[in-house]
Amino acid sequence: MKPVYQRIIAILLMCVPGVLAIYGWTLMRDVLFNAFGGRGMAWLPFLGGLTLLIMGLALIGGFLFHHDRKRKRIQPRLIGKKNEPTHHNKPGH
């Protein structure tokens, strides 16, 4: 069993990309609400928020994919290995 402090540090490290993604989403939402309210579209904050959102989601998704691949919970077609049928010696196949 891993020490508790390692798990706490891992959770805190996963919160950083989550907070960045949430901030990006909020920034994009505010820009869109202002644009629909007649104040004009601010493209730079919108693109910055989109970048933060995509980067945050990519970091979280990459971490989860790496974590599951390490524990062999990923389907072979997702990690690039060819599916080897286990039923090739059965009659009729």
TrEMBL record:
InterPro entries named among the record's database cross-references: Uncharacterised_YqzF
The species this protein was found in: Laceyella putida
Transmembrane stretches, start-end: 7-26, 46-65
Domain of life the protein comes from: Bacteria
Alphabetic keyword roster: Membrane, Transmembrane, Transmembrane helix
Keyword presence, Transmembrane helix: yes
Pfam assignment, any one: DUF2627
Protein name (Swiss-Prot/TrEMBL): DUF2627 domain-containing protein
